């Protein structure tokens, strides 16, 4: 479902436009000015429709703030002049107010279609093994990630990558390095959470002989090893405060001082940091230096959790399955229909890494030429759904999409999963709302509704059930 941001200061026009778009299945948010629109992060949307004349800055100001998201300008002055000016500044098109509903809907559909055909290409990443592979996924949130990588990589600035564990933060760091002018030099990856606190400073910054008990020889640190190249600090939220102070010096002065040394040395390192934690919140409790947070956060790339990339899950699963099959010499193995459905509906709290592990298990355990749900060994959905999915994205048409659910497969597995579903719904539907049921099952409300129809358990009207 495409997301549209309406920026219009007249509440009546704004809500009329919202109702019109929502009736045509668009997801809509509203703002009354450029400032309000900026606070909503216009790059999260697929399209911005903005009035030209707004209190404060004009709507055309959003053209570069929302880029690469297209901005459609509305103007009450159907004069060619303001419209042409907006187009010159990069607006994708304009509509004159009062607008004809059909005309507006047609323009919106055309712009969104054009945008979809100009998708950002996923970057190719060379793995440490030397093999090149693209990042997998085409959903709008990943499109934004790809376009951020493309724009940020050559800029030689510090980048902060945020996302849950296993979402692909290291992959993004590799892409940034490989598309930068430092690509010929080293990329040094360090997981700050994996190094004991007592060793991390000497690992990163090096030490002189005799600097502490056990320092029998002088040693070069990893920051210095990245000189001329890129240093990727994963889980930077785990870095102790002393090490944070030293790192800040590297960023501010471009200088490094080994532990136990009085001399400094100039280093030229691009820093890419990643975290699954909220560094700003950590800075409020004194666990992370606010000045370091500001230094790191020049550019930010946010990776969505896998449960919010519903339309990409099976695409990623197919690519990872092919790799796992090659690794284990089991080419030609496929997922059963029930296994595809389970992969699609599971909430993946451990994200792509968990999916990769489940497929590896499946490849090892599968006995025939199909991988069944039991081979994947996923926890029951109710135990594994830490967070609800976002409102549902359109699900693939079962029989049409190549990455869809209705691949050939065994009916037996289907039955047991559907039995489980039926049982769960019948047992809990009197106490739970539809939203709660869907969350517990780790599926979208739309999936829940579709399965109710398919299995013939329509929603009962019960006076005891909470309304959604
Ligand atoms: N979009 C993607 N396409 C293909 N493979 C992916 C994608 N995202 C992640 N992966 C794979 O998933 C695994 C986990 O990714 P990665 O290590 O980059 O995650 P991470 O966010 O850095 O995790 P952590 O924070 O736990 O270190 C890797 O094997 C990576 O190759």
TrEMBL record:
Sigma-54 factor interaction domain boundaries: 135-364
What is this organism's lineage?
Bacteria, Pseudomonadati, Pseudomonadota, Gammaproteobacteria, Oceanospirillales
**Residues where 4-aspartylphosphate occurs?**
51
Q: Which SMART domains match?
A: AAA, REC
**Listed Pfam families:** AAA_lid_14, Response_reg, Sigma54_activat
Q: What is this protein called?
A: Sigma-54 dependent transcriptional regulator
Keywords of the record, alphabetical order, are:
ATP-binding, DNA-binding, Nucleotide-binding, Phosphoprotein, Transcription, Transcription regulation
Query: Where is the stretch described as Disordered?
Result: 375-418
**InterPro entries given for it?**
AAA+_ATPase, AAA_lid_NorR, CheY-like_superfamily, P-loop_NTPase, Sig_transdc_resp-reg_receiver, Sigma_54_int, Sigma_54_int_dom_ATP-bd_1, Sigma_54_int_dom_ATP-bd_2
The yes or no answer to whether the keyword Signal is present is no
> Response regulatory domain: from which residue to which, for each copy?
3-112
- Return the Acidic residues bias intervals: 405-417
